[in-house]
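Researcher: Hi, I'm a grad student and pretty new to this. My advisor asked me to get structures for two proteins we've been looking at. I'm not sure of the right format, so I'll just paste the first sequence and hope you can take it from there.
Model: That works fine. Here's the first sequence with its structure tokens right after it:
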Amino acid sequence: MEARFRSAALLAWSIFPLVAAAGPQVHPTTAASAASPPPIVAPDPATAASTPAPPAIDDPVAQAVYARIQQMAPIQGSPISRQDAALGKALADFYMQRHYTAAWTDDSNVQQLLGGLASVDADGLLPEDYHLSELKALAESPNRASATPEQKADFDMAASSAYITALVQLARGKVDPVRLDPTWNFDAAAIDPQQGMSMLQTSVDERSVDQAFAMARPQNPLYAKLRDALAQLRTTAAQGGWPSVPEGPTLKPGMKDARVEALRARMVAGGYLDPTLAHGHHFDNALADAVKRFQADQYLDADGSVGAGTLASLNVPVQERIGQVRANLERARWLLHSLQGTFVVVDVAGYKISFYRDGNPVWKSRVQVGKPYRSTPIFRSQITYVTFNPTWTVPPTILKNDVLPKIRSNPSYLANNRIRVLDSGGNVVAASSVNWANPRGITLRQDAGPGNSLGQVVIRFPNSFAVYLHDTPHQELFSKAKRDTSSGCIRVEHPLDLVELLFNDPDKFSRQAIDERIATKKTQNVTLPTAVPVLLAYWTVDIADDGKLSYKPDIYDRDGPLVAALDKPQPLRAP
């Protein structure tokens, strides 16, 4: 048991960032190496910082803690991960500041710790990642008072490690997002090293451990609503889940069908239909309206009929929805700290874009995003300039897969779409001079103006994916509920409204002034006076002000891997 808890004292080594400065931002060009950072080598003791002196006081438990800290020191020349090194230092610093005295001798603190570890279940995390049951058993053991100093030291360090790990994971998340998405480049929540260590010590000294758990969570109303939604879903699951609607032909308003009774029960359970209307086989107007509201909340075309898509959404098991909310709680821990100041958020799975000023949403619109096989990447950048009346250079993938087949089948395609052919030197060449069966050394560029694939404006930000925000001639697609229709870039409805907000200059860039620039029909690149952060994020649930959840299609199949990573037990590392 002692060896096991000495191992448990290293529980958080794989993710601990509390006393180390926040790691460097991971950019797409360096993400592959950042996903698996190379091990570092333990320093030579001759050149390493001097080891703190052992406790001077006559305290056998402190002496045992000190000995355990010494046992954790890596052997010279052995490989050790950067995360291991950070947590090893954290645990050593925590006890060094206490002169190695035990931190968990007060019963109130211990009970608050156990309660706090149990509470992370409401955050979608696993209490047993922190060895809750074992800590609880030892804390409540009648032999605890008579334990040896070594046993007391083992318990204390295991408790401290669990405490630190839980607080950090509540603040920053359990799962390393880079391991799921190598393009991830969002900064983790900043934790000041000195303030973090001071908070740990103060919470123990002042018996405010439970407050530390509460404050570690993202202090954002969205996070609290997600926790409430998770609790409600678990209550539904405990009661047997939602009623299912049997398979069969499409149910339409006006029909009479035995399955309508089950549909009514499902609508009542979801809060879409008054309980007094729970029975009956007639698909009346009240039920049709309820179905339309459900469809809108599930990002389905709200026609009131229950076809295959609506039926599948109605019959999603409650446990799957629980997993979906847990995944979004983890994303909230990754991202909510970034939502400050002035910024733009593209909600990729929700097909929408929002502009925030001083942390408050002031504008939103619909977007079209990449098809599943040409998915829009998830990353952050800075919007730096805008192109009015843009030309469009056909990307190689679109040229190969989309444009070349159209040219081969229709010789007038290039002229009809005002697309010029350029040689490797940028000179215009005749389309008739190109072997379209095997074209080489050419670029296709569409002129600015009507029908241009980028519309009237492009909003640009540096990234390695050639992704940007832009206008589109395909306005009809904005009316669809499911809008994963682009080749990776983000098509924005009403983009000129966003341009006006980005410039934030009523004199030079009023809407009238923007329209006048576009009316010149000249291609112009204009730098923003202040770069504006843009976050391309992926959320698969929405929460209304009343707490009702809307579930989005997981268009890029990201929820499943994230839930699997959340459910993976926290690895233990031997000292």
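Researcher: Oh nice, that was easy. Here's the second one.
Model: And its structure:
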Amino acid sequence: MAQVPQTFFDALAVRTWCGLALESLGRAREEIDAINVYPVADGDTGTNLYLTVESAVGAVEAVFSAYEVGKPTLADASRAMAHGALIGARGNSGTILAQLLRGMAQVLAADGETAHTDGSGLRRALRQAADSARQAVAHPVEGTVLTVASAAADAAGTAEGADCGAVARAAYEGARAALAATPRQLAVLERAGVVDAGGRGLLAVLGALVETFTGQAAPAPVPAFCGAHAGVEGGSRAVPTAGGSPSDADVEDCADVLDAGGPAFEVIYLLEAEDAAVARLRRRLDALGDSLVVVGGDGLWNVHVHVDDAGAAVEAGVEAGRPYRIRITHFGAGDVHTTGGERPPRERAQRAVVAVVPGEGLAGLYTEAGATTVLARPGEPPASGELVQAVRRAHAREVVLLPNDAELRHTAAAAAEQARAEGIRVALIPTRSAVQGIAALAVHEPERRFDEDVVSMTSAAGATRYAEVAVAERQSWTMAGICQAGDVLGLIDGDVAVIGSDVTATAEAVLDRMLAAGGELVTLVLGDEAPEAIAEHLEARVRESYLAVDTVVYRGGRQGALLLIGVE
């Protein structure tokens, strides 16, 4: 079914473009993963680009959902797109794509009240995108996504006086020609017989832009495999066409041509820091490793680098500001990046638990208990693709998925369905709080039959009542009356039950209500901003007033709520 074209670049066009880009990357993901040989042959460029755009889509949808009447401005939507991509960026190419979208947003949101822009505005946005992405890379290399982005901007610049559809087509054709030329610009691509993976992903995103403004699919991209792989210069291999799935032999041949050597770790984190500190950080990380990309601004940055000393890269971030959502990936002993050899496949575990956790402290607790964790920062819920990645990372035949948040029910269900389609047996336990997840994990026994284990974990989670203490951000109606911004709220099973002015007193009132119905164990999870003496006060309250009830306390870190409470 043809897409209804957008005449101007407005908020709805941003929404449509992001959705179509996600669909396009979903179709091309396996092909892009297969040709990923630069800067590291880790076979995940397509997946990383997909997750980056999925995060952008989630942010844009959240902005639209906030409007009961009317729709957001172009500035609102484009800023949301850029912010979502920034906080969800994965890998080298995903980080660069986030900066491309941020560059576009800087132009599209320049006048916060403008309802839409035309072809001229789109040309300027594409130019700013290419230039800002190039500036974000410490050592730009031709034959990569940067080259493709620059070519798209150059071609768009020739479409003076054209509408958005014509500008988008020109950008796509310029990018398409540049992508075809990447093997001649980068030796590693020529040896592997492939085009650049990041550039191929950007072409998919630009193709979605064409469809947004014309209602028609863009012309087919150039074949991903070329040279000997395409039967050129004596080669005889059949080539996967655009959107087709590459064979295992294609992937192996791509890896076989790579040189050995290179840093052992990929380090990525979000960083809250001032511009001057980030400038110093760039110099520090540039000396530590390679593939350095630092994108963002206005106090929030996404940092990506390949290093041998992952700890030093994180320490540099600590010196610059506050790093979080830290991801460290070891490229692997014996893989093509570090030694050029072939690594034997890791044996799948029989069963694993994957859990979403709201803070670093609980992430450590869950990890010690054997779970694979996905960190959900306040206001940054994980996308379904991130949960699927965690299920894959667990590398098990059977997986128990704990979303630990009622708002993640649909996201977790979508991830479970995708994992099942990949042959993994997944059971989703609808835990609505991290304390229910703790209860479920406490009775987890991998040696039991899968169904029995799931029933036991589900029962333990269901028997755990949960609550949280948080601060109201705005005035609103609640089950307990009207609250004002700054009030302390006590929520039991998701509903506001207590409104107070003191954190400790509110927490005690919540705990008393919960224990009035009985209980044997109280779990307290303290956030970073909880009062220092609150745990000691609540433990004393339980000892004095509720005989035979035990209390356990954990540090949750920066988890959003001041306090999580579980009673089982």
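Researcher: Is there anything I should tell my advisor about the second?
Model: You could mention this: The chain has a mean pLDDT of 84.
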